[in-house]
Automatic annotation (TrEMBL):
It is found in: Cell membrane; Extracellular vesicle membrane. Mg(2+) binds at residues 60, 171, 173, 332. Transmembrane segments: none annotated. The gene is ALPL. Belongs to the alkaline phosphatase family. The lineage of its organism: Eukaryota, Metazoa, Chordata, Craniata, Vertebrata. This is Alkaline phosphatase. One of its GO terms (cellular component) is side of membrane.
Length: 521
């Protein structure tokens, strides 16, 4: 009994030390709530400016559980407990939920969802930039079913446009901005079946260069799809898997150069140093392809050869800001999804933290007066964390108790399915014998699969800037680009855009300028 008493006392002492001193004072919570209340009341003065600039941040696979875990990770990387931390995206005043299903899928994929949040039309899984009249793989169903994206709507209004991603620039998310394809995997003609080639369908890399030849900024991975088959890669000349894949013999980087108008400067770069040393005032078009395939996980990135997502975003914004009519920028943290598929939560969450860093950087380079920023995900994952962990528990750590069924410890982070399923000697693996804090540790899963799957629940949509209040409830995912386009006066719905109907950022300043004029006179 004395032993039990001492253990209870120890537990109580430990529990008390988990609580930061200021949080023990009820005034701390009341004061914080009142500050939040004042912020909320200030939102009654709606920002109804016309959005000159639009930025869409897309965390691929960044469901709500991923956002929460990334917030805790960010705080713990700053040597705090983590739960009370704020992500940059947490500071956005408006939050909605998006229903992510595809027209033929309850749990969606990244292609059908990208068509929804970029083109404003729900579509079938595996298809990009086409309506639900197109079935995956069926090239002959594509003609006449193409749907255009908000990137195209912005370009048609004379805005500058850009795409930044940590995946291949021909991957599902970016490709829906410019391509129309019955299969998201048709990166180059080398990945296409004969019937699709004979049917006249174009691969995605070729569409990147040909469909909208005046995209100002394209940054990401995917070099190998731009070059003829067996062309050695510039960075990994000895590696066969990184060689060019094209069967048509085209050098699409050269074709990209050749498509630019006379007198315009188009720069292609493949190295971080080249990117960061550019004099952007002298560059009109920028193509940066930093890896043959997807870019390397942020945790493993070679920071001499490859830029981070935030470094690419900083360059993109500075390039696009040269256009007086404003810009549209798509920023994808595309490898959050890959980390989860591989059951590698640590990789996924560090990718999410880096996307959030890019959100913060973009916020410092722009103003919410004239820039509508939206952060969302295409879909979730079957990723979870729980187990009654105490305050400040390391996000990649163990739950405080053992299972009362198999008497083994377990990590807080788990997956519903995936490659982390492991039976040792007929029983669940004992994680205390494993380095569960390793970057490539695969968290335990309930069902064995080579690749973990997406999750089907709604995802968050966070918004800040002109007309951000239009994102406010539970929406179909395809509503997002319609709301953004309305705010920017681009796309088909522009009846509200007469100068009388909507103030611009300049118009909003007129009463202040008039008052100053009267005071000075």
């Amino acid at each position: 009994t004395m032993k039990a008493f001492l253990l209870t006392l120890l537990a109580q002492l430990c529990s008390a030390s988990l609580v930061p001193e200021r949080e023990k004072d009820p005034e701390y919570w009341r004061r914080q709530a009142q500050e939040t209340l004042q912020d909320a009341l200030r939102l009654q003065h709606l920002n109804q400016n016309v959005a000159k600039n639009l930025i869409l941040f897309l965390g691929d696979g960044m469901g709500v559980s991923t956002v929460t875990a990334a917030r805790i990770l960010k705080g713990q990387l700053q040597h705090r407990k983590g739960e009370e931390s704020l992500l940059e995206m947490d500071k956005f005043p408006y939050v909605a939920l998006a229903k992510t299903y595809n027209t033929n899928a309850q749990v969606p994929d990244s292609a059908g969802t990208a068509t929804a949040y970029l083109c404003g039309v729900k579509a079938n899984e595996g298809t990009v930039g086409v309506s639900a009249g197109v079935t995956r793989d069926r090239c002959n169903t594509t003609k006449g079913q193409e749907v255009t994206s908000i990137l195209r709507w912005a370009k048609d209004e004379g805005k500058a446009v850009g795409i930044v991603t940590t995946t291949r620039v021909t991957h599902a998310t970016p490709s829906a901005a410019y391509a129309h394809s019955a299969n998201r995997d048709w990166y180059s003609d080398g990945e296409m079946p004969l019937d699709a080639l004979e049917g006249g369908c174009k691969d995605i890399a070729r569409q990147l260069v040909e469909n909208i030849p005046d995209i100002e900024v394209i940054l990401g991975g995917g070099r190998k799809y731009m070059f003829p088959k067996n062309t050695s890669d510039v960075e990994y000349p000895q590696e066969e898997r990184h060689r060019g894949t094209r069967l048509d013999g085209k050098d699409l980087v050269q074709a990209w150069h050749d498509a630019k108008p006379a007198g315009k400067v188009a720069k292609y770069v493949w190295h971080r140093r080249e990117l960061l040393s550019l004099n952007l005032s002298r560059v009109d078009f920028l193509l940066g392809l930093f890896e043959p395939g997807d870019m390397v996980y942020e945790l493993d990135r070679n920071n001499e050869t490859d830029p981070s997502l935030s470094e690419m975003v900083a360059v993109a914004i500075r390039m696009l800001q040269k256009n007086p009519r404003g810009f549209f920028l798509l920023v994808e943290g595309g490898r959050i999804d890959h980390g989860h598929h591989e059951g590698k939560a640590k990789q996924a969450l560090h990718e999410a933290v880096e996307l959030d860093r890019a959100v913060g950087l973009a916020g410092r380079l722009t103003s919410p007066r004239d820039t509508l920023s939206v952060v969302t995900a295409d879909h979730s994952h079957v990723f979870t964390f729980g187990g009654y962990t105490p305050r400040g528990n390391p996000i990649f750590g163990l739950a405080p108790m053992q299972s009362d069924v198999d008497r083994k410890p377990f990590t807080s982070i788990l997956y519903g399915n995936g490659p982390g399923y492991k039976i040792v000697g007929g029983e669940r693996e004992n994680v205390s014998a494993v380095d569960f804090a390793h970057a490539n540790y695969q968290a335990q899963a309930a069902v064995p699969l080579r690749q973990e799957t997406h999750g089907g629940e709604d995802v968050a949509v966070l918004a800040r800037g002109p007309m951000a209040h239009l994102l406010h409830g539970v929406h179909e995912q395809n509503y997002i680009p319609h709301a953004m386009a309305y705010a920017a006066c681009i796309g088909p719905n522009r009846a509200h855009c007469s100068s009388a109907a909507r103030p611009s950022a300049t118009a909003a300043l007129l009463p202040i300028l008039l008052l100053l004029f009267l005071l000075l006179c």
